[in-house]
């Protein structure tokens, strides 16, 4: 935590000093020929390398979608794995073009660090996982429990707040990495494990008897995860934002990677505007007319990338939940392209 | 120079070493007091005295292993000061043999002898090795050339040290208690070597307790005590007819 | 028996005079009889020995058996994804998941180095091994040329091979290097570059010139005082703020410089210990023959000092080799970093993945460290033949 504060403080003072980037990012990226995307050092479902060394995940797919829109080639991305401490300085110093690293959008990060958060690609929150044998159905029954967690993140503080607010006592058992924490939980060192819900599902895979554990329903914090860019370049900011919105709109209108060719023939005006058959919306962003076609064809719409990386098509098996479209009861809502 | 042509090299000046008004302090201890000493070309001088008298210190001033605060030391016309170049020039021509031998343990006997000729006189390796073999023969241990110092006896090691010093073909040889660290049965072989050297005409300054050697070989014997030269004369007079009280005391102690 | 014949004893049995008649010949030492008996006595002779033996045996079994079970007996040797390493699938206790290591092996060794270009690190490894092997064998000839090739030519050639961009080779950014490749690059560079630095600092610290001495002490104490993590973090993330914006020093190069300075300071103190052990007479004898400071140091003092401190030096080298894992903090993926990253692949997430990965990394680190330490021991023994005290 201390390291985060020091890094933030330093970056804050220097953020004020750094010259504002002119509306040059898109040109720079185009000239360079690749997009430089800051990711994590390995977070299941969001950014992790597969057996071939290729990066996959939800955060990765956002960058791939951007590359698809800009270059018509989703592979023209250079991934820079960053520790939690280093991610902000990397964006500050211009080492990366966009930070797509399961970063929570908060007010302080939006202002004093000199960043703009472009969108929320995943509404996450902190939750608890316990053994089914504990016969606990709600986090409110966890009075007096020992909870394993990773140190140095907001997780610990959130848990403390929650327990205090509900007049419950608990014992926090801290570990350097999530892997160590989950191992300790598995061996019975603590009664419960707390982390962002997306990670609870990922960590569950590492337990000896996966099905003996249950994720409790309470979500005790707001962790809206999304990509961030440096302040001062509105065009670039818009591009990142609208790449995400394009994928939401595509899912809303039923356009997927499989059906995009079909959809090109659709008479619906919304679909025509989406796919660039009408209007100059792509060009307004500085991209091409068929920018959404590129995105959907090469990467997919939001539903597809969700299922593939963290949903039913992946080992994590997380339900859409809050991340459903607004039409289905969730809060993923994109402004219209028109 | 081929081994046959190895003449002992002599100083250019008739005065090999000229020490005038030498004063040295170790911290606040006045270790050398107003020392005047002149060593002529080809002369052999033996310096004796009780321990702590400063005789080793005086010897080590001749090649500036010790420095001094007052006075001057001139070796073969070159005055020794802080000038590094002059110091190295002098050291090249002055050989020294130490009480503790100080052979280089990581090198063979041959390498010990050829090291300085190759690196200081820039002699080609073959010539240096021939030279080394010549001197190892003169000190009568040619067969040990390939051994390491730790494999030799004390007497043999000291003879290697003498050969090593000779390989630089010095004009003056300094001996700082060369036999004091040896077992009695080995002292003779080292002294014999030194006698041979003296007979060849080498200019030598020897600090030693071996009075028999002094009688046999020295042109002059000097007694040092409390940092100063008490008495100095030819061996016959020094031993038979000492003048100073301290000399008499010293002789009565070491000659039984 | 002989001697008693020759002895003239007094009436009361004392041995006053003796004159030898025949010399005793040399003969071979009698072989130790009853080896088994000796061992048995050592192990079980007496209560204390027996207890020690039983406790040791117990510890051995308690440690070795589970390790054996995990690594070999219960291990899975074939598989394509996590299900093949799960207890539910196999209906038996599961040990190490070796297919996981096999799948990730390329990343463990090369990091994200493009597959098409992996022949280049392979070539570097091969050349390195070919040059190193004869250097290690004491009897091999042409040591000088060998050393020159290995310590000077090899690094330059490796640089061009690995980085590329010239001679028709594709440029591979240092950012994508990883795994054992990075570990070896950092260790090798750190060790080879910090030795001369350490020697210079050690000599500087003992210099009679006050300016040199003060600077040396300052450098040594500063670099020993800061933790390596801080050095790495500062060099990678803070330094760019202090440098002019277009000075883009490669991240790996910054790490190499930091590691070299850090290691050099530690080596300086180790070497200084060795220098202090050399008797003053060695310096005097060499100086008395007209040798200047650098010649004395290089030919006489340093060769002896370095031999004395081989244990300390190798200790530092092994520590440096393992300290390379700290570079994960600056997002450079060494062997351990790659292993940890691979834990995040959901395709291979099982309860044993963690242990398997660490076991693999542990084996590699152990093999290399042990090899270094054994070799150093052998070198020490060989070089001590000419020492006074063995």
Please provide a brief summary of the model.
The complex is a heterotrimer of chains A (338), B (256) and C (390). With 338 residues, chain A is of the alpha/beta class.
Strand content of chain C: under 5%
Q: What is the subunit organization of this protein? A: heterotrimer
Low-confidence stretches of chain B: 1-5
> H/E order of the elements of chain B?
EEEHEEHEHHHEHEHEEHH
- Briefly note the structural class of the backbone of chain B: alpha/beta
The domain tally of chain C reads 2
The total strand number of chain C stands at: 1
Helix content of chain B: 25-40%
Which descriptor suits the 3D outline of chain B?
globular
Examine the secondary-structure arrangement and name the CATH architecture of the largest domain in chain C. Answer: Orthogonal Bundle
| Beta-strand content estimate of chain B | 15-25%
Q: Give the topology string of chain C: H per helix, E per strand.
A: HHHHHHHHHHHHHHEHH
Please give the largest β-sheet of chain C: none
Rg of chain B, alpha carbons: 18 Å
CATH superfamily of the largest domain in chain C: MetI-like
Class by helix and strand content of chain C? mainly alpha
């Amino acid at each position: 935590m201390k390291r985060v504060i020091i890094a933030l403080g330093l970056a804050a003072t220097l953020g004020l000093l750094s010259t504002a980037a002119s509306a040059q990012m898109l040109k720079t990226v185009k000239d360079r020929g690749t997009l430089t995307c800051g990711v994590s050092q390995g977070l299941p479902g969001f950014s992790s390398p597969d057996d071939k060394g290729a990066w996959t995940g939800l955060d990765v797919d956002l960058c791939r979608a951007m590359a698809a829109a800009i270059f018509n080639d989703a592979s023209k991305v250079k991934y820079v794995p960053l520790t939690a401490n280093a991610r902000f300085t990397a964006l500050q110093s211009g080492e990366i073009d966009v930070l797509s690293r399961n970063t929570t959008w908060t007010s302080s990060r939006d202002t004093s660090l000199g960043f703009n958060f472009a969108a929320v690609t995943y509404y996450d929150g902190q939750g608890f996982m316990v053994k089914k044998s504990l016969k606990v159905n709600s986090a409110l029954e966890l009075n007096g429990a020992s909870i394993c967690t990773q140190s140095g993140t907001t997780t610990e503080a959130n848990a403390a707040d929650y327990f205090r607010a509900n007049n419950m006592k608990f014992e926090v058992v801290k570990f350097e990495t999530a892997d160590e924490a989950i191992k300790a939980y598995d061996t019975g060192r603590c009664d419960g494990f707390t982390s962002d819900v997306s990670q609870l599902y990922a960590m569950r895979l590492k337990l000896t008897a996966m099905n003996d554990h249950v994720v409790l329903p309470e979500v005790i914090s707001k962790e809206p995860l999304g990509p961030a860019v440096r302040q001062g370049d509105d065009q670039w900011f818009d591009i990142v934002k609208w790449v995400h919105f394009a994928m939401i709109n595509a899912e809303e209108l039923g356009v997927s990677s499989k059906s995009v060719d079909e959809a090109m023939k659709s008479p619906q005006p919304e679909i025509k505007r989406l796919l660039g058959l009408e209007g100059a919306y792509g060009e307004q962003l500085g991209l091409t007319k068929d920018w959404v076609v590129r995105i959907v064809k090469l990467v997919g719409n939001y539903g597809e990338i969700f299922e593939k990386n963290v949903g039913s098509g992946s080992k994590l098996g997380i339900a859409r939940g809050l991340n459903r479209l607004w039409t289905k009861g969730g809060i993923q809502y994109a402004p219209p392209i028109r | 120079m081929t081994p046959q042509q190895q003449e002992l090299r002599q100083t250019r000046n008739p005065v090999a070493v000229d020490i005038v008004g030498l004063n040295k302090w170790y911290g606040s201890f006045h270790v050398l007091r107003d020392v005047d000493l002149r060593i002529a070309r080809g002369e052999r001088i033996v310096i004796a005295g009780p321990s702590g008298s400063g005789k080793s210190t005086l010897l080590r001033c001749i090649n500036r292993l010790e420095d001094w605060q007052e006075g001057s030391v001139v070796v073969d016309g070159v005055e020794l000061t802080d000038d590094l170049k002059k110091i190295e020039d002098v050291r090249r021509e002055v050989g020294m043999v130490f009480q503790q031998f100080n052979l280089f343990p990581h090198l063979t006997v041959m390498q010990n002898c050829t090291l300085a000729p190759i690196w200081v006189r820039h002699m080609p390796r073959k010539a240096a090795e021939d030279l080394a073999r010549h001197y190892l023969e003169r000190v009568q241990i040619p067969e040990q050339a390939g051994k390491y110092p730790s494999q030799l006896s004390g007497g043999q090691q000291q003879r290697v040290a003498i050969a090593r010093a000779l390989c630089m073909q010095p004009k003056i040889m300094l001996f700082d208690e060369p036999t004091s660290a040896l077992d009695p049965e080995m002292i003779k072989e080292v002294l014999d070597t030194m006698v041979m050297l003296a007979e060849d005409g080498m200019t030598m300054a020897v600090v030693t307790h071996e009075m028999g050697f002094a009688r046999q070989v020295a042109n002059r014997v000097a007694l040092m005590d409390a940092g100063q030269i008490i008495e100095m004369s030819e061996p016959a007079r020094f031993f038979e007819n000492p003048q100073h009280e301290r000399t008499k005391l010293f002789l009565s102690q070491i000659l039984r | 028996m002989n001697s008693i014949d020759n002895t003239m004893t007094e009436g009361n049995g004392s041995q006053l005079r003796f004159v030898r008649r025949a010399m005793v010949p040399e003969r071979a030492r009698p072989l130790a009889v009853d080896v088994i008996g000796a061992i048995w006595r050592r192990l079980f002779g007496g209560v204390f020995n027996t207890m020690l033996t039983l406790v040791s045996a117990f510890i051995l079994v308690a440690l070795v058996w589970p390790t054996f079970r995990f690594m070999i007996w219960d291990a899975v040797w074939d598989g394509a994804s996590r299900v093949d390493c799960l207890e539910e699938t196999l209906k038996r206790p599961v040990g190490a998941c070796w297919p996981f290591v096999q799948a990730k092996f390329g990343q463990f060794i090369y990091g994200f180095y493009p597959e098409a270009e992996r022949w280049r690190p392979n070539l570097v490894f091969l050349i390195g091994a070919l040059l190193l092997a004869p250097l290690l064998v004491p009897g091999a000839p042409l040591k000088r040329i060998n050393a020159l090739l290995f310590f000077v030519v090899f690094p330059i050639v490796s640089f061009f091979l690995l980085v590329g961009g010239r001679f028709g080779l594709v440029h591979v950014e240092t950012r994508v290097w990883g795994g054992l490749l990075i570990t070896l690059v950092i260790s090798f560079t750190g060790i080879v570059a910090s030795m001369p630095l350490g020697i210079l600092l050690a000599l500087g610290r003992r210099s009679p010139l006050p300016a040199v001495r003060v600077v040396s002490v300052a450098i040594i104490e500063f670099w020993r005082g800061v933790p390596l993590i801080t050095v790495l973090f500062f060099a990678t993330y803070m330094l760019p703020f202090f440098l002019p914006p277009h000075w883009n020093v490669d991240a790996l190069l910054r790490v190499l410089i930091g590691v070299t300075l850090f290691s050099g300071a530690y080596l300086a103190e180790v070497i200084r210990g060795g220098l202090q052990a050399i008797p003053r007479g060695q310096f005097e004898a060499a100086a008395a023959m007209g040798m200047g400071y650098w010649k004395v140091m290089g030919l006489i003092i340093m060769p002896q000092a370095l031999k004395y401190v081989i244990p300390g030096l190798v200790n530092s080298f092994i520590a440096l080799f393992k300290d390379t894992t700290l570079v994960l903090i600056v997002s450079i993926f060494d062997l351990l970093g790659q292993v940890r990253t691979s834990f995040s692949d959901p395709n291979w997430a099982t309860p044993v993945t963690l242990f398997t990965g660490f076991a693999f990394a542990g084996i590699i680190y152990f093999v290399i460290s042990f090899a270094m330490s054994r070799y150093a021991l052998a070198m020490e023994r060989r070089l001590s033949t000419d020492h006074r005290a063995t």
